Amino acid sequence: MNPSAVTAFCPGHISGYFRRINGATPAATGSTGAGIVIDSGVTARVTRSPRTEIRIIRRDAQGKTREQIAGSPILQFIMDRLGVTASVVTECSLPIGAGFGLSAAALLSTLTALNRLFCLNLSEHDIALNAHEAEVRFRTGLGDVAACQGGGWVVRDGPGIDARIHRRYDLTGPLFAISFGPIHTPSVLGSPRQMERVAAAFPKRTPRFGRDLFSLSQQFAVQSGLATPEVRQVIHLCSTRNIPASMTMLGNGVFAYGPGARCILEQFGEVFECRVAHSGARIIGESA
Ligand SMILES: Nc1ncnc2c1ncn2[C@@H]1O[C@H](COP(=O)(O)OP(=O)(O)O)[C@@H](O)[C@H]1O
Ligand SMILES: CC(C)(COP(=O)(O)O)[C@@H](O)C(=O)O
Predict the structure, then answer these.
(1) How crowded is residue 97: how many other Cβ atoms within 10 Å of its Cβ?
(2) Owning domain of residue 152
(3) What CATH number is attached to the domain comprising 214?
(4) To test ligand 2's pocket by mutation, which of 137, 139, 142, 184 has the most ligand atoms within 8 angstroms of CB?
(5) Which of 111, 125, 151, 202 has the least CB density, counted as fewest CB within 10 Å?
(6) 17-71, pLDDT tens digit by residue?
(7) Cα first-last separation, the chain
(8) What is the pLDDT of residues 271-286, one digit of tens each?
(9) Which residues contact ligand 1 via a Cβ below 6 A?
């Protein structure tokens, strides 16, 4: 029996450091790097409709609507590619364009829900491939879809969704983040000069444990030239108090680990709390 409505969720991803890798196809293009899959992401609710209508809603912790956006080119693209029309409403609480991997989360949650709604028989691999190719084509991301196929803090050995990914779960405490504003991901990923600096700043080793990811990410943020003055200020303050912290790639913001991070970050703006996710995109509801 085909459902009339399906809801799916996908975690977000905070990238700590990355290096672009160009392949012969969008599927073979992506990034190597490391980051944290987080339990705050995107929920997508899809219902049958003769016309595609896409609405993005961002809500605060109390459920109050903070932002509404009509349309999402990357979601329109994948729906056209699948040859389906539907009403899509996505919801998130983290700010969009701020380095939380929400474009990837929106793609994976929407594709997962559409797959069930229309009984498309897509495998998880097919879904991830469609999402990854859209990210690469629109320059909205490189490694987030690969990371969000599961949970944990992750080290990705290569580009695309089939490269080796190491998932670890020793970061068991709370994560906190602030955003000073978005960074236009496509502009950075489309800049050869920026990508050269990113490659030159790429760490020479991988993190030995969760907290070590923050140290390597911090060095990367500064050496790549991506760290803004406000990000540097907050990261420095966290370091003086031995709080692991770094820049949310690619967003003008900071993420930090441990209960002591909240009182430092809240001096600079609204603080978002999350934890390491333990799984990737999944269906969370459907109605007959
Ligand atoms: N929650 C969402 N729902 C639908 N589309 C989204 C969502 N978040 C991002 N997108 C789409 O992806 C595009 C790029 O987002 P991006 O800057 O990569 O965000 P992030 O840094 O959080 O991944 C946005 O302009 C929007 O079209
Ligand atoms: C850092 C980034 C290239 C972009 O991340 P976002 O802006 O969150 O889409 C990510 O996709 C990665 O490959 O690590």
Answers:
(1) 17
(2) 1-288
(3) 3.30.230.120
(4) 142
(5) 125
(6) 999 999 999 999 999 999 999 999 999 999 999 999 999 999 998 999 999 999 9
(7) 8
(8) 999 999 999 999 999 9
(9) 42, 56, 72-75, 90, 92, 96-103, 106, 140-141, 185, 251
